[in-house]
Amino acid sequence: MTNGADDSGVGRRTSRRSFVRRLTVGGGALAAGLAGPARSPAAEPPAPADPTRELGHPVSPYGTRSRFETAVRVQARTPTSVASWTFTPLQDSCGIITPSALHFERHHAGVPDIDPARHRLLIHGLVRRPVVLTLADLERLPAVSRTHMIECSGNGLTEWATPTMPDVQRTHGLTSCSEWTGVLLATLLGEVGVEPAGLWVLAEGGDAAAMTRSLPIDKCLTDVLVAYGQNGEALRPEQGYPLRLVVPGWEGNTHVKWLRRLKVVAAPAQTREETAKYTDLLPDGTARQFTFVMEAKSVITFPSGGHRLPGSGLYELRGLAWSGRGAVRSVEVSTDGGRSWQAAELQAPVLRIAHTRFRLPWRWDGRDALLQSRCTDETGYVQPTLAELVAVRGLRSHYHQNAVQSWRVAPDGRVSNVHA
Ligand code: CO
What is the pTM of this model? Predict the structure, then answer.
């Protein structure tokens, strides 16, 4: 799939027949592309080429995508590639699941090469029965599968002061969505027996950075997963193979990868990643700490920065919305820089704390347009404009930038990242 040309069809409130009719009467390039040039009703369109007579590739033990599909993660400009991140190509995705091979990455010391047979998970601290678990132990316990997005809290950090990145991959691509399979942390904590004084859990990764975060016990007893599966197979190494935490709706950094230790403690450990990093500096010089939740956010992925529309006519605006607090309730779209808004259609499935697709037919008149989307989640929280966000947060923090994104469509069809 490339540049929004996905085949996801049209939705419940817009039947395919009526959409195609509008495309056909639209007279734009898209209409011409679908319906072809005008001809008499009896004329048949030219037949596609005959099937090839050459034998295809033989069966294979592990599949790969077509050589014609070229969407890839792109790496941030960082001094080293082992303390770096890569962005998911949101502009090329269809549906709500991110292919595991395209899930964004964030590593602090590279991807460790871990033999699952030798990997262990230690659970200790303020517990009655500390344990060391193997992968086989974990796989014997009751399993759950949950579809959730993970968003790095640094997603969009370049976009606070100026529209910096050229495309949606680099402005918003630090979010991805997978089906995760594993054991509820509540099940494991039930097995070990948490002491009354145990109010936090310290989670430590097995990478060279020993990435470590403190999480409140209430969250750990609610929906946190110790996951070994992603999208129907084992986790990818860059996603934490063989074990990672999945902390639904909370900043990506808390989803500790290569998980090797959980220590129940009385108070947060004040690790590097929750003091010097992953805090939010405010205009008055104080910082917010433990800002875990990723608030509601949305972005139009087609058309978006770097696209060029071939001409005026009917298009389908498409995008993704999500909220760390639950389900997306609604998405509104503006084509005039926020002066007027229209309700977009949400494409099923609409899952809690997961990417949610939206779309809206749009007839482009060929003049300057300013495309925006605005998400409201099930709690009633409304995605802020950049001005509203900056009024509270200032311009000194990096994380939790969830402002409305603006794309300008110029009369020549070129789409660019702007602040509006
Ligand atoms: Co935070």
Answer: 0.90
